[in-house]
Design goal:
Layout: H1 22-48, H2 50-57, H3 61-87, H4 92-110, H5 116-130, H6 133-144, H7 147-182, E1 185-187, E2 191-193, H8 195-204, H9 207-217, H10 239-248, H11 250-282, H12 286-317, H13 323-341, H14 348-362, H15 364-376, H16 382-413, H17 419-440, H18 442-452
Antiparallel strand pairs: 1-2
Helix pairs in contact: 1-4, 1-6, 1-7, 1-9, 3-5, 3-16, 4-5, 4-6, 4-8, 4-9, 6-16, 7-8, 7-12, 7-15, 10-11, 11-12, 11-13, 11-14, 11-15, 11-16, 11-17, 11-18, 12-13, 12-14, 12-15, 13-14, 13-15, 13-17, 16-17
């Protein structure tokens, strides 16, 4: 099997920089997915810890949402572009390995926080590390697969987000229960740590092993040039050139960034506050909440990502060049009704079933937004274009999804138990807005894909 060369790698460095075999390409996708799993475990575990963190640090839902959303997305957004610039010109596996190491250590450091600002700063470091993963991973995957298989490859990578979220709930609930049984523990240098602080150490430190595995076993695949470029003419683009390209296709990128950003807002509004909804309205423990939501996210959201990847490939094979946007629109339409209804259902099992349906459709845009981006820009621009998308998605999606729900709960309803109604309002409206924007961009997207295909 032929694998790409990298001087610093172990097994991967043994071959020349030829064509990547599909077997090795799928190994790369799998390991990227594992990294994505760990990133979402570290990112999402905090949602189960909302009540003990609020109690110990004395903060409201709104301030908690800033730790969960804004603190994470600030550095995720700000560091995304310079890191992506490196990914377009340097070793992508090395960047990913460094990012995994950083966010894993930063997650553990969250367990040392003694006040709001310390936790805020540690979450910023988590976001900085995670900014290295997806732009580089998307670029590597696109260079490893033909267009006809790109949707499925990106879908497999993308399910890592929901396997990670599901495991954050499943394992996190069990770990939290174990830590609560152990009670506060005292350690040299750091002093006494309470159960929620210990939980961050338990879920964060194993990621260091994933960073080592990635560094020693993954090589950088050869970069592909556009069909209109001379052989070997894959070139580098400056940030100014990237911004100029976006400006010349402003309608396409506005539709994509804002459309998928609103759909991400709907998803994160549901994911971020589902634990609080179940604990506050049905009196579930953190362990039981983690069990219910873990199963829903692992099954429902993962199935949604795979369904959307299959749907995008199916539409592409039937001649729809705008297939990724169409698949994303189907997800946006599907999320509106169940998101609007679940909080009004008094029976917990029925409410969870409707919430699961909303989460299934909310996951459609994850793989489809990635597939669309890889076709919208020339090769050595992809990581930077992806990073700009993540800037938009994180400020609009993660921060908006977390904070708008909290603001609605604190200042519109002024009742913690009304968090479900806040989720329903924000998610349904965001799903509608995202679908309309993607529909507006269909024709523009087709023209941009045609233009990108002729560039190096």
């Amino acid at each position: 099997m032929t694998v790409p060369a990298r001087a610093s790698a172990g097994p991967a460095s043994a071959a020349d920089a030829g064509t990547v075999s599909l077997g090795y390409a799928w190994y790369t996708v799998f390991l990227c997915m594992v990294a994505y799993v760990f990133s979402f475990i570290d990112r999402q575990i905090i949602t189960l810890l909302i009540d003990p963190i609020r109690a110990d640090l004395g903060i409201s839902d709104t301030r908690f949402s800033l730790v969960h959303g804004l603190a994470f997305s600030i550095f995720y957004a700000l560091m995304g572009l310079p890191i992506a610039r490196l990914a377009d010109n340097r070793s992508r596996p090395l960047l990913i390995a460094a990012g995994i190491f950083l966010w894993s250590i930063a997650t553990a450091v969250c367990g040392l926080a003694r006040n709001f600002w310390q936790l805020f700063a540690a979450r910023m470091a988590v976001g900085c590390g995670e900014a290295a993963l997806s732009p580089a991973a998307y670029s590597m995957i696109c260079d490893s697969f033909p267009k006809s298989q790109l949707g499925r490859a990106l879908a497999v990578y993308s399910i890592g987000s929901f396997i990670g979220s599901g495991l954050a709930f499943l394992i996190g609930g069990t770990v939290i229960d174990l830590m609560q049984r152990l009670g506060p523990q005292t350690f040299p240098l750091v002093g006494t740590l309470v159960p929620w602080q210990l939980t961050f150490f338990m879920v964060g430190l194993p990621g260091v092993l994933v960073a080592a595995l990635f560094f020693f076993t993954v090589g950088d695949p050869p970069r592909k040039a556009g069909v209109g470029a001379a052989a070997g003419a894959v070139r580098s683009y400056s940030i100014a050139q990237v911004l100029g390209y976006l400006a010349s296709h402003r309608g396409t990128f506005t539709a994509h960034y804002a459309g998928f950003g609103f759909l991400a807002l709907a998803m994160f509004a549901l994911l971020s506050w589902s634990p609080a909804y179940l604990m506050r309205n049905f009196g579930l423990s953190m362990r039981d909440t983690g069990l219910y939501l873990g199963v829903i996210v692992l099954v429902g959201n993962s199935a949604g990502v795979l369904s959307s990847g299959w749907l995008a490939d199916w539409l592409m094979r039937r001649g729809y060049e705008d297939a990724p946007l169409r698949a994303g629109m189907i997800g946006g339409l599907g999320v509106i009704v169940p998101a609007a209804l679940f909080a009004s259902i008094p029976d917990m099992v029925t409410s969870l079933a409707v919430l699961a349906l909303a989460l299934y459709f909310s996951s459609f845009p994850i793989a489809t937004s990635a597939a669309a981006l890889q076709l919208m820009a020339p090769n050595r621009m992809r990581a930077q274009v992806t990073a700009l998308f993540f800037l938009s998605m994180n400020l609009l999606g993660i921060t908006g999804g977390a904070t708008l729900v909290a603001l609605c709960t604190d200042y519109v309803f002024a009742d913690d138990r009304a968090v479900g109604y806040s989720m329903a309002i924000i998610a349904a409206l965001a799903g509608l807005a995202g679908t309309v924007l993607l529909a507006w961009g269909l024709g523009r997207y087709r023209r941009t894909v045609a233009a990108a295909g002729t560039m190096a």
